[in-house]
Amino acid sequence: MSTEMPGPNITSRPSGRAARERMYRYVLLLCAAASILVTVSIVVLLARDAITFFTLVNPVDFFTGTEFLISRNVYGLLPLLSGTLLVTVISAVIALPTGVAAAVYLSEYASDQMRSVLKPGLEILAGIPTVVYGIFALVYVTPFLQTIGLPVNTFNILSASIMVGIMIIPMVSSLSEDAMSSVPDSLRQAGYGMGATKFEVTTGVVVPAAASGIFSSFILALSRAIGETMIVVVAAGSRPRMLNLSDPLANLFQGYQPMTAAMVQINSADSVSQLGFTSLFAIGLTLFVITFLLNLLSNRIAARYREEYE
Question: Which helix (H) or strand (E) covers residue 117, if one does?
Fold first, then answer.
């Protein structure tokens, strides 16, 4: 009588592995769906309360109004938009050229040892709490500007914008440096073979080849500047006002109230009417639409001008 040893169950292993793969797929799908669900929920809730506001306030009056006074139930977006645009433009003037210059140095000129020191140093700026930037602007930057003779008020848009610009430099430099590093060395060598200097190769070959990534970093950084809250709350002031087109430089020395600062003021007020509270959601929805359109523009630019290398 012969006995046979039971062999390994060959069919059980593939089926068990397939079950685990299906489980992993469903878990990852659940995570992706959760992120989309959270985003959609935020938009729906913003839109619901914003619609409540627009049933009481004419949308045309809101988007074209030149006064924003909660105490008098006057809600015009343009003064808040003026402060937001000022912060964005001034911070862009500071951050975009500085960030690109830092990216060029890290990608094309810095040694490995220098890059290992400078890049983490730049990224530390992104880890500093924004309220610290705001306090630094109020306590140190504003007195410094007054010391050098600029007639800035205690709360002013210039100090806040300088710190916002410094805050978004790491975003510009990191994304731009990644785009430049992805340019193949064969293009650089072709430039050197034609007798170009390193600076000519950098400005004439590398930067144009990485243009899509650089412009995408610009738009993402501007989106970050538009949505910045704590720096402008602490340092920019809380007075909504329109731009003074007759004396543009005077705008830099005065206090403004960007949209994010107005939302904080409304939410933290001891007493606010129901209409004033719902205006918070109208401002938030407007801010969301602006940043969403900027992100769409970033994606379109990246897709339109992306260079593909083999």
Answer: helix 112-127
